[in-house]
Amino acid sequence: MTSLVMLLVGLLLFPLSAIAQSYQNVSLGSSLTTSDVTSFWSSPSDEFALGFQKIGNESRYLLAIWFNKITDKTIVWSANRNNLALDGSKVQLSADGRLVLTDPNGQEMWARGMANAQLAYGAMLDNGNFVLATSSSDTLWQSFNEPTDTILPGQVLNQDNSLVSSFSDTNVSSGRFEFILQTDGNLVLYTVNYPAEATNAAYWSPMSVGSGYQVIFNQSGFIFLQAKNGTLINSISSNVENSRSQSMYHRAILEYDGVFRHYVHPKSSGREPMAWSSLYNIPDNICLSIRQSTGGGACGFNSLCSIGTDQRPRCDCPLGYILDDPNDKLGSCRQNFSEQNCNHESREVESFTFHEMLDTNWPDSDYESHRDVSEDWCRQNCLNDCFCDVAIYSDDNVCWKKRYPLSNGRVGPTIGGKALIKIRKDNSTVGTPNVEIRKKKNQSTLIISGSVLLASSVFMNLFLILLALLYIFKFIGKKRKRTAPYSAVPGVNLRSFSYKELEQATNGFKEELGTGAFSTVYKAVLDDENGKVVAVKKLRNMVTEGEGEEVFEAEVNSISRTNHKNLVQLLGFCNEGQHRLLVYEHMKTGSIAHLLFKDSRLSWSKRVQVAIDTAKGLCYLHEECSTQIIHCDIKPQNVLLDENLTAKIADFGMAKLLKKHQTQTTTRIRGTKGYVAPDWFRSMPVTVKVDVYSFGVLLLELICCRKNYEQDVANENEMILLEWAYDCYKRNKLHLLVGDDEEALEDIKRFEKFLLVAIWCIQENLASRPNMKKVMLMLEGSVEVSIPPDPFSFVDSI
């Protein structure tokens, strides 16, 4: 039974309205003080309590609600997280109808309820909700409507309700992350522009596309997003392990590290000590999920994020760097050495060396890149450049130069490449403090020279200034001539071409490499010193919504920031009048469509590698980009091979550049017939799972070396590959799919594994499809492949 079906069963077994809450009144005038933290207002069963908890070693107190029957008294709600109370503070259910927190001087710190609102009592309920009520039991205020970082079974997050993480595991004040159901219906995890409360960048969303109305945590332990009409949109936490046991406590919390986790804890059974265990967390890998243009990322600037053995993110400063604030373990790092002196004649090249780190990167901190160079060349170039603080040497021989401060740092086995971190040698003391050097780097050398000239004679000053001006004008003139045709999008190493340049490079758009629904690709030779061969994609009547140059360039900018060896690299663009063209690296071998369905087909071992390469590229688009990209048209024609037969995904940015009304079929569906997920036909929100489905079709074509639909077959049951492949699997007749491929027959175990992965991907129930990260791990053998259900048995009843 799938997790979605279990969720529906859970909803039927444990409707919210069926849980009656008992309570015991807190009468008007009742109060609690910080001087006696053993006193509190408890629920009837003593499951929860409201009172004061001491925070840290100092005499600071939090007015909070906690689980009262477990040893650690886990807090689930607080009133004054950003303004802790001092000794002598008091909370009182006042006679004027309010719950009021006052400091030792009697000054009001926090209050809820309304004066003269006919408040009769307060009550701590057995579900963890504290309410203020009238004599007729009408609720005037409840803590469930003002959550801090936690939600409990029976609790609902309405639109504009949010959870805000704490700052750290010891600092309960508001932190850097927010989980919010927005008024537009989108459920989003944001980074917060700390210390301000404004959100910075989204790093997770279930792609509800504006239809969310409530996030519900029901009594069976399921968390889900629901539409206004009651339709279930997304299951947020659907792991059913222990979830139906009434002997477990549940809570879900947005923790200080930015991960939303669902926890369970056994109720008291005389087997102390017991602890909370995690059932589910979002996102799977926050180090890879956060990639933002502003801010430091999952950790601070210059820090590196990695996932520890406890599956929690860990932030570390690289060698030569230290924490800017020793009390902020997730914060920024700063250099612990004096910087390279740009004004020094030798640039202090001999005073610096590199610390190497494999599978390490700070994406989006690039200011320059060089292709087809050696690692030694990359090292020397960075050493000679006083602005270069780190160089990343990638597996495809690209040198990416980065400058301080570095953002979105991450370490992990899927990153690839090698980081060369420039540090000062231990015995080198030359240089100035790095704060001063940073200032000097931003000053004009002309101003520095001018200050020296002022100390000379007037005549000498004038003479030198005249020479300097002549030199500057000459330099600027040359630079303009050199750089005018190469203007780039700010912050991206991307070339902007004129239409005339590309017309000449393609010899009048003469040699066609391929054509699609909205574009034609031409071979071109750039007019530069290397005569680089590229592919120019000429878009037909294609602009983004808004139809403005700035919007088009913004999308191109976003696409250009992708950097993965299994994606075709965007090198430049043209945005001139009605002309929209994209310039890509040239893939000499062409698409796998030309090598898959012909007699001279790719070998089994090459097809295996193509499948893994393509999965890696899609995983990067879905989980590691700064803005998630859904391809929407995965097919053999969009998987290209370079001269080394490395597979790279093409057209991965076309979904971003297309207008919403532009489609490849007569419906409002994007994609190609045969590869389109059934989700499109159900008017469901488009998620990354549409790409997973298309990849499943492609994977079947790869392992079977045939198209997904063929009329010219001996048996009509073989016409549709998806159905035939599953039928062969059920009847244990894999040899029919393998055919005369002797290499595949010798590797039949791997063939069967890849077939099972493909069947998982083509499940009509999108909730059953794995994400691309899991697909990649299954193909590589890191994760076991379980037996999939019938992919065509799903009935859409939601």
Automatic annotation (TrEMBL):
- Which residues make up the binding site for ATP? 538
Q: Residues of the signal sequence?
A: 1-20
Q: Where is the Protein kinase domain?
A: 507-793
Q: Name one GO cellular component term.
A: membrane
- Where in the cell does this protein reside? Membrane
Q: Give the GO molecular function terms.
A: ATP binding; carbohydrate binding; protein kinase activity; protein serine kinase activity; protein serine/threonine kinase activity
- The reply to whether Secreted figures as a keyword in the UniProt entry is no
EC number, as in UniProt: 2.7.11.1
Q: Which PROSITE patterns match?
A: BULB_LECTIN, PROTEIN_KINASE_ATP, PROTEIN_KINASE_DOM, PROTEIN_KINASE_ST
> EC top class, in one word?
transferase
Q: Which reaction does it catalyse?
A: L-seryl-[protein] + ATP = O-phospho-L-seryl-[protein] + ADP + H(+); L-threonyl-[protein] + ATP = O-phospho-L-threonyl-[protein] + ADP + H(+)
- Where does this protein chiefly localize? membrane
One Pfam family hit? Pkinase
Q: Where are the transmembrane segments?
A: 446-473
Q: How does it sit in the membrane?
A: Single-pass type I membrane protein
Question: What are the Bulb-type lectin domain coordinates in residue numbering?
Answer: 17-145
Q: Which UniProt keywords apply?
A: ATP-binding, Disulfide bond, EGF-like domain, Glycoprotein, Kinase, Lectin, Membrane, Nucleotide-binding, Receptor, Serine/threonine-protein kinase, Signal, Transferase, Transmembrane, Transmembrane helix
In the UniProt record, does the keyword Nucleus occur?
Answer: no
Against PANTHER family, the record matches this protein to:
G-TYPE LECTIN S-RECEPTOR-LIKE SERINE/THREONINE-PROTEIN KINASE SD2-5 (PTHR47976), G-TYPE LECTIN S-RECEPTOR-LIKE SERINE_THREONINE-PROTEIN KINASE LECRK1 (PTHR47976:SF108)
- Family per UniProt? Belongs to the protein kinase superfamily. Ser/Thr protein kinase family.
Protein name per UniProt: Receptor-like serine/threonine-protein kinase
